[in-house]
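hi! just following up on the protien thing from before. the input was this:
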Amino acid sequence: MRREQIEAWVAQGYNVLEHMKPKVVQGDIWEYLNRCDGQGTEVYALSELQQWSDQELAQMELKKYADQYGQMGEKLFLRNEAIRNKDFEKYEAFLLLFFPDSVEKELEEARFLADRVKRVSKEEMEQWVVSNHVNVLMSDLHCLDYGSIMSGMVMPSEDVVTYTDDGLSDTIDCHVTPMEFFAHTNHDYYWIDPVIRKS
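and the predicted 3d structure came back as:
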C-alpha cells in the first residue's frame, strides 16, 4: 500500500478502505468502523492510514498475501520487494527461516532478475508494449498492485482471450491483456522485466 494511493483515494472522495478496496461511507465513519469492529472485517479510515508510516503500510500489504497464501504469499511479496529495492536482507532472512534448502538458488534468481527489472513511467511501459507487440502481461503479485513486476508475452491472437480470461481476479500470477491492465491502473511508476516471452 502506497501513501500516494491513499492520497489519491481521499482526493477522489473515498473515506474508508474495506477489504483493501476504497469505499465511500455516508454519515459517521467512526460509527461505521465500530459496527465493523470484531466481525473479522478489515476496515480502515483512509484519514487514519494517511498517518501510518511507510513500514506499517508495507506490513498491511504483506499481510494480504500472507493471509491468502500463507508462507508462499509472504515469500512472493518479500521477493518482489527485494527485487524492486535491490535489498535482499529481509528476503534472505525469511528464506533461511522457512526455506533453508533453497536459499542460494532463490537469492541467485532474485538478484539476476533485480539486475534486469526496470522502473518505468506509464507512457514508457505503453511504448514497450507496443514496440514489442506484447499482447499478454503477466505479474508476480496482483497485477493492479503498485509494485507488481510485469513481464510481457507475445502469443497467437486467437489464444489471448483463453489465456487471459478472468486474469484480473487472480491474486498472484495474473495474466491480462495490456488494454485491461492500463484501463485499471494509473501508477506513477511500473516495474517491468523487459525480456519478452514467446509462446
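The chain has a mean pLDDT of 90.
The first strand starts at residue 16 and ends at 18.
cheers
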